[in-house]
Here is the input.
Amino acid sequence: MRIDSHVHVTPPDLIAGWEKIAKREPYFKLLSESPVNRFATAEQVVEAMEENGFDKAVIFGFSFRDMGLCRYVNDYVIEKTKAYPDRLIGFSTLLPQHPEAEKELVRTYESGLRGVGELFPEGQGFALESPGQMKALGRTCASLGIPVMLHVNEPVGHHYAGKTRTSLAQAVTFAQNFPDLKIILAHWGGGLFFYELMKEVRQDLARVYYDTAASVFLYGHQVYDVVRALDLTDKILFGSDFPLLSPQRYLGDLERSGLSDRDKEAILGGNARRLLSLGTGNRRHRPDRNPVV
Here is the structure.
């Protein structure tokens, strides 16, 4: 089973009116105005997954500062996961420090969503390291057994829209504050996985996973060999960041890596299946239809 664990969806009416929303959502404006930005509906995601040979996609709307907008995109994700139950898995978005964050989290969970994210600490204006601000999110998700996905980026290198000042230390503190919480750090966790060479950090990050979203913009294919050397392939989730990038863009790097078939299968879906407690069903893939590029 192949699972894309990092896919963005946007309701059609928000796509049509994104400029109006951007006037009151600075981070949304920043990303939406980027020349590489794209929007996709749930139907376009399903079509792309079929074209690229993926069985399921984890979808989520944009994490706004406005909780009303978060609820709106959550309702869209709920609707579409019910329309495509065999193809789409939904995460909810919310503002962690909002008084109704816990209520919205429980509502979306009871409606079938199975995680939270992708949340933007700097973009949404919350302190990831603050136990008080993160209490409702951390404790509730841990109790429900569902993961939280966070936007984390590398602290060095070129600048791009969406590169924030959220630090690796803040991400570690968040994991320390909620040791029973499953956490997904997007974009390879900004390289945080390297520090799992340190015994105490590996212990603190025992429930932390890393996804590959935007990898082809950031790292060479050797990044897969590095996580293999660190014995972390069971914590890596394939994520394309679609519609920013197609899943096919990543498969060439996987093939060029020195990973075993077992490790590739784990990254392409096995780890996500375990994390999200999914079944083991599998569709038949057709390599001739979906060439590795």
DSSP finds 14 helices and eight strands in the chain. The first strand starts at residue 3 and ends at 8.
